[in-house]
Design goal:
By secondary structure, the chain is α/β, with parallel strands linked by helices. It has 11 helices and 6 strands. The protein is elongated and about 95 Å long.
Length: 327
């Protein structure tokens, strides 16, 4: 009888303590969510330091996801990519904050190296910018690290990644940008003005050279990867934060930098110019000396710049066995 009474009393005390602990957790979670909502109402991207990170991200309880950008925005860090990535991250966070579907299910935050170097050390992080997703329960997995070098940092790509990790669909809304329409209007005005000034002599519109040059320019722009840049939004180049070395050619065959497309465009243009010179040297009626010069110049352009193109290809597709002039 005494044993049953003791067991019942122990069970009662255990249940009371369990309920009390559960209430404390619910109260603490409610306070954390309220505080996060208050910060999010003032800034779409919450700025985190070491204390905030440990309390609102690392410490339980937590029923919300955190998407955090680790960056280095101070001028002395000389991280131009960080500024560009921060702009896109702000667009994403604002699109979520001011959407009708906004809830406390997910929050966006940033940690600057100069304000939270201890967090970088805690996570063994030595590069910026980096995007991490912290799920409501458990530790982040490898898929919770955003593949910046592959996907780029465009807000649309970040939104797809967030949807994959949290099932939260964010419709990216960008501020109106009138630069494109203005440039298009200026171009149309120039074309219209030129056509008006030469309205009595429009033979240039029927020139094969004009249309051939236009078609060649369009083909060079497309084959250099400009459309990929427009879709993926990659950084212009990459600067190693440890050594300060700037890379203009991406080391992977699955990604590229904006500078890389400009380099490829220049090399393809030089090769095309060499081919044009060779064709002119073979078909034109100018004297033999000039034709020889054109032939030598054309062969030199093709050989040199094709060799450079091949070397870039070898650098991106590791193990490719062939090279020409430049290894």
């Amino acid at each position: 009888m005494f044993v049953k009474l003791f067991f019942s009393l122990f069970l009662l005390i255990f249940c009371v303590e369990l309920c009390d602990t559960q209430k404390k957790k619910e109260t603490l979670l409610s306070e954390k969510v309220t505080q996060m909502m208050d910060w999010a109402s003032k800034r779409s991207v919450i700025r985190m330091n070491g204390e905030k990170f440990r309390r609102f991200v690392k410490a339980p309880p937590r029923n919300y996801s955190m998407v955090i950008m680790f960056t280095a925005l101070q001028p002395q860090r000389q991280c131009g990519v960080c500024r560009q990535a921060d702009d896109e991250f702000q667009v994403l966070a604002n699109s979520w904050r001011y959407s009708s579907a906004f809830t406390n299910k997910i929050f966006f935050a940033s940690v600057d190296f100069d304000e939270g170097s201890d967090i970088f050390q805690m996570l063994n992080m030595n590069s910026a910018p980096t995007f991490l997703h912290f799920p409501p329960k458990g530790k982040p997995r490898w898929s919770d690290t955003y593949e910046l070098q592959v996907r780029g940092f465009a807000a649309e790509q970040l939104a797809r990644w967030v949807a994959d990790r949290t099932d939260v669909q964010i419709r990216v809304i960008r501020p109106p940008n009138y630069a494109g329409p203005l440039l298009l209007g200026l171009l149309l005005s120039l074309i219209g003005g030129l056509a008006y000034l030469r309205r009595h002599n429009l033979e240039f519109l029927f020139s094969k050279n004009v249309w051939a040059s236009s078609a060649l320019g369009f083909a060079l722009i497309m084959t250099s990867g400009q459309m990929w840049n427009h879709i993926r939004g990659p950084p212009y180049a990459h600067k190693n934060p440890s050594t300060g070395q700037v890379s203009y050619i991406h080391g992977s065959s699955q990604a590229q930098f904006v500078a890389e497309t400009h380099i490829v465009l220049l090399f393809n243009s030089a090769v095309s110019m060499g081919i044009v010179l060779l064709c002119e040297a073979a078909t034109s009626d100018i004297d033999t000396g000039k034709r020889r010069i054109m032939c030598v110049a054309g062969i030199s352009l093709v050989m040199l710049f094709f060799s450079w193109l091949l070397s870039i290809f070898r650098a991106k597709y590791h193990g490719y066995p062939y090279s020409f002039l430049i290894s």
